Write a sequence for this structure.
């Protein structure tokens, strides 16, 4: 592990010194390079330079690039510009986030997959011969599977989906497919709010935003974008989620206080 860390650190420093305008990142042996440009030809040129620089480094250090796991992302102009990389993605995963390049009003494929896995685990919890409180503790411990990547883009969730997610939790707690009970009462009096799916996803997003934005100048800039009625958000990213939360009837005051520097975090 020490050797791998040394090699990856050297790769980052090598990229920064050879192409200062690109941003190299790594997590263990997963490497990423990002570049921006004013024109598409320049962007393609930078993409090819980044890949060649990485390929040469990997080869010289005795490692191998797994072409099946490599992909380009971003503007469509870079799709297919690298001979050995055929995959171009609009949605992909980073550590702690699911990135969307497009503006489709939906969860990313990764989020959908994790939500289905979360509901499957709730089905297993439902069958456990344990107390209500024990089930709540277990459900609370797996909520991160549902809330994964919240904060990296808007929350695209319909009332029908919210109802389905809530019902999954209630069925697990009651061990019953059919029930006559108010979800509001259950999640207000009998269960902690952190296991209510819609609240949990918004809470996870706000926690990420609070960790991500630290400086007063960043808060002011984002506040200006958020309160500007003419502002649009072509990229479904963190700023778009902040805008969504700021104009939400429940979370407005929290985001307002945070962006104005009045929220102690």
């Amino acid at each position: 592990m020490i050797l791998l860390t040394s090699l990856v650190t050297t790769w980052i420093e090598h990229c920064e010194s050879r192409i200062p305008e690109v941003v190299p990142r790594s997590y263990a042996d997963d490497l990423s390079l990002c570049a921006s440009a004013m024109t598409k030809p320049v962007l393609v040129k930078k993409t090819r330079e980044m890949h060649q620089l990485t390929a040469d480094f990997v080869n010289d250090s005795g490692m191998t690039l797994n072409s099946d796991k490599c992909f380009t992302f971003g503007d469509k102009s870079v799709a297919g510009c690298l001979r050995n990389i055929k995959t171009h993605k609009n949605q992909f995963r980073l550590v702690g986030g699911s990135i969307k390049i497009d503006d489709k009003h939906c969860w990313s494929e990764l989020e959908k997959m994790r939500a289905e896995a979360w509901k499957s685990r709730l089905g297993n919890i439902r069958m456990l011969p344990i107390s209500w409180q024990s089930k709540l503790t277990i459900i609370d411990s797996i909520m991160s599977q549902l809330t994964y990547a919240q904060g990296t883009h808007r929350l695209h969730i319909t009332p029908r989906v919210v109802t389905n997610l809530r019902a999954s939790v209630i069925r697990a707690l009651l061990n019953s497919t059919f029930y006559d009970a108010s979800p509001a009462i259950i999640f207000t009096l009998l269960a902690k709010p952190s296991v209510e799916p819609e609240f949990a996803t918004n809470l996870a997003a706000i926690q990420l935003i609070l960790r991500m934005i630290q400086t007063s100048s960043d808060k002011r800039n984002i506040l200006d974008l958020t309160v500007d009625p003419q502002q649009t958000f072509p990229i479904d990213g963190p700023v778009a989620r902040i805008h969504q939360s700021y104009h939400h009837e429940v979370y407005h005051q929290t985001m307002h206080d945070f962006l104005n520097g009045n929220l102690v975090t």
The radius of gyration is 22 Å. Residues 40-60 form the longest helix (21 residues).
